[in-house]
Amino acid sequence: MMKKTLATLVLCLPLATLAQDYTYSTNPATGNISVSGEATVYVVPDTIKVNFGIETRDMDLAASQAANRAILKRALESFRHLGVEDKDIKTDYLSVEPRYEWRNSENVFTGYFSRNGFVVTLKDKAQLERVVDAALAAGVNYVHGVEFETSELRKYRDQARQEAITAAREKAEALTAALGSRLGPPTRINANDGNRWWFYCDADWGRSGGRNLAMTQNSIQSVTASGAGVPGDIQLGKIAVRASVDVSFSLVTVPEDGR
């Protein structure tokens, strides 16, 4: 097998179990105190999504599309032999583009470029290297990204939010006690769960940005057919699920006798 190289970008995350932060302000005119609490829960991923791309070029449109379909067919057959089910393979992107180059003061037609992007979802880390190698051997040109996710995002997001609320209340209680006041009931609560879920680095294929979910994950990006498969010793690390809250509490003045 031809030796290949791999260009990767790994977003490394610390493995602490919980991180918290806060800010606060008081408003003597209204008798309120406002605090912000933040928490992060780190989770081992249980789902891997590999984003593949096939690009073919030919001066004839039908030939360009046929070559693309042939590569996809070979890749799908290889995946099935590895135990990947059809339901775990989804088309992600399709395009056909006539391309021209400016030569000697005129546009010269260089061919039809057919592109097909698809996503393979895996539950077993051990399959990742085999699936990538099989795809490249079948003629797939690109591995646009490898995404590590958790199927229990809601559970861990709720946990992070509860920790953030606890952090905000504890800080508010400490601050008001130091100021000779007591915490009353909350008057406003605002939850913020907006973190990036994933990121595509290949904007030329029409992809940009990320999903607005409370999760930041490890990723491996930009593997081309001239590069290698994914390295065997893959350290998945942990996913950071973050939540933050802004809470305002009313203030109760403590009598001089402390009752």
UniProtKB/TrEMBL annotation:
Protein name, entry field: SIMPL domain-containing protein
Record-annotated membrane-spanning stretches: none
InterPro entries according to UniProt: 26kDa_periplasmic_antigen (IPR052022), SIMPL/DUF541 (IPR007497)
GO terms for biological process, alphabetical: DNA damage response
Gene3D superfamilies, per database record: Protein of unknown function (DUF541), domain 1, Protein of unknown function (DUF541), domain 2
Higher taxonomy: Bacteria, Pseudomonadati, Verrucomicrobiota, Opitutia, Puniceicoccales
Entries under PANTHER family matching the protein: PERIPLASMIC IMMUNOGENIC PROTEIN, SLR1258 PROTEIN
Signal sequence coordinates: 1-19
Keywords assigned by UniProt, alphabetized: Signal
